[in-house]
TrEMBL record, chain A:
Gene3D superfamilies: BB2672. Residues 1-11 have a biased composition (Basic and acidic residues). Residues 1-28 are annotated as: Disordered. It comes from Streptomyces cavernicola. It comes from the Bacteria. This is Amino acid synthesis family protein.
TrEMBL record, chain B:
This is Amino acid synthesis family protein. InterPro entries: AA_synth_put, BB2672. SUPFAM superfamilies: BB2672-like. It comes from Streptomyces cavernicola. The lineage of its organism: Bacteria, Bacillati, Actinomycetota, Actinomycetes, Kitasatosporales. Pfam families: AA_synth (PF06684). It comes from the Bacteria.
Amino acid sequence: MQESIQDRLDPSDPSVLSDPAGPSAPSVLPDAGIGLRKLVLHQEVVLTEAGEAPARPARRASVAAVIRNPWAGSGPGTDLTAEQLRIAPALAKLLTDRLVGTLGGVDAVEAFGKAAVVGTAGEIEHAGALIHTPYFGNLVREYLRGESIICFADTRAEAGETLIVPLWHKTHAATRSHYQTFGARVPDAPRADELVVIAAASTGPRPHPRIGDRLTDPVVTTETLEALPS
Amino acid sequence: MNVRKIVTLVEEIRSEGGRPVSPPARVAVVAAVIENPWAGEGFVEDLGPGIEATASDVGALLAPEVLDALQAPAEAYGKAAIVGLDGEVEHGSALIHTLKFGDHFRKAANATTLLPAVEKRGPAGVVFDIPLKHITDATIRSHHQTTEVRIADAPHPNEIVIALAAAAQGRPQQRLAPLSTEQ
């Protein structure tokens, strides 16, 4: 057991769901000015997988923010710009601050992803408005010092839905060892008029990556496969 | 003790019932997914040696982790043992219903009461609720609360999920009359 524990990051580091201002900083509005109901952190550290310790142990985390959907019940003619400009940058900062604090610093983050779940009184377009534009994506990329496009998942669902958030390498998206997913779930959200917005990250690859990479792949086409003995 | 992974969940509630919660209410859970010490051994009459080998270690692992995750003194706490489908609920109970397990948490949190618990058997991804009560007086009604946990890929049939939960306060908008008002 002791050996496995040493593989983990120092728990005295800026730790789980740490708010740089402290958990009860009086200057912070409880709802962060964006209708925030709660934040949920989920972190996993794999010590052994298939009976063996990973050569590079990774820490994976997601942070989910449950907010009021500012467009719930409005029609498809509604212009989403103003609220998007107001809310998305605040979410990008809030979620990445928590991720970086949890995972031991921005340099520890190697892979990232994003996601949103919209409640049933909203449109999937509302989820998109908060995660698919530069007001969220560019800022998350900047805060996490990435270069890749950020992969994503989104859905409309009842509270308690598990969303599988895809992650890939933050600077080299085609790095196959870093293709991985992380489940995010808030038991009591989203309510019909809420949105759950999620940022997720990993400090390393899958536990035992061994399916090669683009650099090692042979040429594979229908023609080359036909040449193989059947 | 063979640990496959450690899972941490932290909820920070900013509003409840449409009103702000300030300071935010925090609840943390840390779970260890471990191999069932009695996996594959059939019916083991004497669970003592397995308890001796595992219960204290897993309690020592989880107690500091859950307090780190909470980032505040714990006022309420609870525990869980969720046994994979090939084990007995008794195996989970064996690991958490011993002072060897709970004393690590009680000592770290300056607590005195027994930890309320959930024990059940289920497949990977089973949802379970951990009950929490006040750390020094289990009759303090404001601190009775529950937190929900799900680990998508645990427990495997030969595993047990052992978890500790801690809350930095009572329920977010607690406003029930204390027990003493009804006595």
